Amino acid sequence: MISADDLRKEYGDFVAVEGSSFTVDDGDVFGIVGPNGAGKTTTLKMLAGLLDPTSGTAQVAGYDTAETEMRNDLGFLPEESPLYEEMTALSYLSFFADLYDVPGAVAEERIHETLDKLDLEHRERQIGDMSKGMKRKVAITRSLVNDPDVLIYDEPASGLDPLTTNYIIEFTEQLAKEGKTIVFSAHNLFHVESICDRVAIMADGEIIARGDLAELQDAHGETTYHVYTTVEVSDSVRENGQYRRIVESMDAVDETRTLAEEAGGDVIDIRTEESSLEEVFLNVAESRSHSEG
Ligand SMILES: Nc1ncnc2c1ncn2[C@@H]1O[C@H](COP(=O)(O)OP(=O)(O)OP(=O)(O)O)[C@@H](O)[C@H]1O
Q1: From which residue to which does the signal peptide run (predicted)?
Q2: ipTM for the assembly
Q3: Is the CB of 234 inside a 6 Å radius of any atom of ligand 1?
Q4: Average pLDDT of 200-219?
Q5: Closest residue to atom 31 of ligand 1, CA basis
Q6: From the CB of 7, is ligand 1 less than 6 Å away?
Q7: Ligand 1 site-directed mutation target among 11, 32, 184, most atoms within 8 Å of CB
Q8: What is the residue extent of each domain of the chain?
Q9: Atom 5 (ligand 1): residue with closest C-alpha?
Q10: In sequence order, what DSSP letters do the residues of 160-215 get, joined into one string?
Q11: Structural class in CATH, domain 2-218
C-alpha cells in the first residue's frame, strides 16, 4: 500500500507540488497524468524517498519514505535512466543485484527471466552501444532486481517507438497482475486508461481530479447516445443502410424515437459511449482555466 498525505515541495518561493494526497491499494496501478511541469516527477521522487518533502508525509510498503529500508522493497524507474555506458547490460544488472545483496544465482536467474520477458537480446553488449528502447528495458530490469513489491515508474515508455512502447506497457500490466503495486506517470492517456485502476490528474503542482475512470467520467465526462434508425431523422447520418443520430441525453433519445416513428420507421439500436480519459482530461483542464479567469 502507498499513501501520500498532504505532500508539498517548495523550491525557494516556487511551489512545485501542493497538498498532494492519495492512496494506492496493494496490487493496484495508479497513474499520474498532467502537462509538462505539473509536478509528476517531483511527486514520484518524494514517494521514492529521493526528494524530501517540504511538508507532508508518505508511506510506501509499510515504511515512511524517510526510512532507507524502504528502498529494499521499492523499484524506481527515473524518467532518464542513468546507465553506466561502458558496462554490459548483464554486468550492470548483476552489480545492482549485488548492491541489494541478492545472492548470485538468484540474481542471475531473475535478471535473465526479466530480460527474456522483455525480449532483450545482446545482453553482453555495452550499454552505451544500445538503442534507446534497449536501454529502457535494462533500466526496467534494474528496477526489478530486488523483486520489490512496489514500483514507481516515471514515464516508463517516454520517447520510444510505438512497438516498444506497447511492449513496455503490456509488461507493466503483467507486473501488476503478478501482484506488484505500481505508480506511474505518463503523457499518453491511452496507456494510463488501459492499465490503471485509478488516476490522478495534476496541473500546476496540484491534483485537480482523481478516481477510477468511471468516477472521472461521471464527474467530468459525458455520455453520448448513438441512436440507429431505419429512416432518416434530423441530424442523422446514413451508415450501412441505416441512420445514426448522436445525442447527449435520454430525452433526446426519446425524441429521436418519436421522429423515427413519425417518419414511418423505428429505432433499431442504441449504443452509449463514455468519454475517454483524454476527453475527461481536456474537460478538467478547460474548466480549470475558465475558473481561473
Ligand atoms: N530542482 C528544482 N529547482 C527548481 N524548480 C524545480 C526543480 N525541479 C523541478 N522544478 C520545477 O517544479 C515543477 C514541476 O516539475 P516536475 O519535473 O515535477 O514536473 P513534471 O510534471 O514531471 O513535468 P514533465 O512532464 O515535463 O516531466 C516545474 O515547474 C519544474 O521546473
Answers
A1: none
A2: 0.96
A3: no
A4: 90
A5: 37
A6: no
A7: 11
A8: 2-218, 223-274
A9: 11
A10: --HHHHHHHHHHHHHHHHTT-EEEEEES-HHHHHHH-SEEEEEETTEEEEEE-HHH
A11: alpha beta
